[in-house]
Amino acid sequence: MSPVTIRFLEQLDQFYNSDNPSELINFLDKTFWESVKSENTELLIASGNEYAGYLRVSGKIKEAHEVYEKIIPLIKSSYGIFSREYTSLLINLGNLYIADCAYIKSLELFSEAEKILSEFPEERNLYAALYNNRSTSFRMLSDTRSAKKDILNALDIVKNDPQKRAVSLINLSEILILSGEFSRADKIITESLEIFERKIFFDPVHYANALSTAGEINYYLGNYLRSQVFYARSLKEFDNHMGNNPMKERILNNYCKVRKILEDYNYEGT
């Protein structure tokens, strides 16, 4: 990895740890388009993957696709299609199609990635990412059996990695919500939040998602005060680190729904 790319990743960590989402997006935008102009392939791929991921989380699906259009041919020409790098790209692109509600297309990309991964059985982290993301596709298609199988496979792989385990537990709890297993989902998301709140890593996007999931579970359990608190904490994480995006809007709608219930029952929430 070149010194320029290493410096980019170091700066990226600093921006992710800041409380100014606009600075982060400006940094990613500037670095990516400057690397396009300079034809720095390594930096373009590294910054492009990060930029597209942030655009996806921000709900800017079209812009994220435009970034991938730039880096896909470079990854193919630099590494080939039977490579770890191309496999990682397929998984990231599949995740983007999930955000675009194109779940069948995402499954096609994940299947392609799985075929390539059969040549790299040692790439356990890529397998975990594949299973984790594919479980979301299955869940969104209401195939809870396949979703649960994949997420349990992912959890088995990442059992010694706190950050990846915390993220996988969010996905498992969301599958359990779909299955109506709310009490079990509550235990799972509690474990996930406990890992996040040890603060041994920094992952505000998934932490906000975990808080929102806890809010949803408590809503279904009838614990409206707890639900409101979790939704409020999730919104605060978005405000501090990601700014406005469709996910935040959905959480805000859920917060308002719970708030209305509490007002109707003359409770005072925070």
State the low-pLDDT regions, or none.
Answer: none
Bin the strand percentage. under 5%
Percentage of residues in helical conformation? over 70%
The number of distinct β-strands equals: 0
* Rg: 19 Å
> Regarding quaternary structure, how should these chains be classified?
single chain
The N- and C-terminal alpha carbons lie at a distance of: 48 Å
Shape call: globular
What's the average pLDDT?
Answer: 91
Run of helices and strands: HHHHHHHHHHHHH
Main sheet: strands, sense, barrel: none
Structural class: mainly alpha
Helical element count? 13
Overview of the structural elements:
- It is a single chain.
- By secondary structure, the protein is mostly helical.
- Helix content is 80%, strand content 0%.
- It has 13 helices and no strands.
- The chain has helices at 3-16, 21-38, 41-57, 61-79, 84-99, 103-117, 124-140, 144-157, 162-178, 182-196, 204-220, 224-241, 246-264.
- Helix 2 (21-38) runs antiparallel to helix 3 (41-57), helix 5 runs parallel beside helix 7 and helix 7 runs antiparallel to helix 8 (144-157).
Give the tags.
mainly alpha; globular; 13 helices; 270 residues
Short synopsis of the structure:
Helices cover 80% and strands 0% of the residues. The chain has 270 residues and is an all-alpha fold.
Q: What does the secondary structure layout of this molecule look like, with pairings?
A:
Blueprint: H1 3-16, H2 21-38, H3 41-57, H4 61-79, H5 84-99, H6 103-117, H7 124-140, H8 144-157, H9 162-178, H10 182-196, H11 204-220, H12 224-241, H13 246-264
